[in-house]
Amino acid sequence: MKPLTPKNIASPFGGYSHGVSGGGVVLTSGQLGLAADGTVPATVTEQAEICFENIRAILACDGLDFSHILRFSAYVTAREHMADYMKVRDAMVSELAVKPASTLMIVSGFTRAEFLVEVEATALAPTARSSPK
């Protein structure tokens, strides 16, 4: 297994990696709307954009991009945040021929009250094709 912790995003809050790669699979930890400078924007839209850009950076550590994502799991703190989150997600995958599977759940909150959304991803690295015999 290989840890994936990009230098251009906020450090993890504790003893974990932002992502882990192993066996052709990449799992990201849940990404919050925390900018690299430690600020947290006020809107779900801005926070979701940071979440997805963090995921993009984590995948890039292993040479992957959004086309390798199998599934997003997302969490918002209120029903009224769902539409704004979904607009950001849909924009991030708009160019993909195959859209990732997606789950969206409403939760009571996160570690800090200003966090409104958290997103995690599961990706699959392309397998090397063997040459025909």
Automatic annotation (TrEMBL):
SUPFAM superfamilies: YjgF-like. InterPro entries: RutC-like_sf, YjgF/YER057c/UK114. Signal peptide: none annotated. Pfam families: Ribonuc_L-PSP. This is Enamine deaminase RidA. It comes from Falsihalocynthiibacter arcticus. The lineage of its organism: Bacteria, Pseudomonadati, Pseudomonadota, Alphaproteobacteria, Rhodobacterales.
